Amino acid sequence: PPATSTHTATATTIPLTATGTATAPAPLPFATVNVSAANVRAGPGVIYPVLTQIRRGEQVLLLGRDVTGAWVYAQLWSSMEGWIAVSLLSAPAG
After folding, report:
1. What is each CA distance from 22 to 61, 88, 94, in whole angstroms?
2. Is the pTM of this model over 0.85?
């Protein structure tokens, strides 16, 4: 049988309400920062360096989620991409 990867830093594209299968969400999922400042990191965890910070009310495009579901891989308005803790974000109304 083919080998499977268990690397936890790999982003997979799945909806915010994951069902356990990787599917492309539609429409594109956005989330809003719900704290005064959220760190955007190089990997899914506090051990990874901070790339930048984003402020309360800023929106990000969600591109994927780590295997634990605690971190999302997101694109900022500046086109920069990085990892943000799910607890620092809220989905927009609607």
Report:
1. 17, 23, 23
2. no
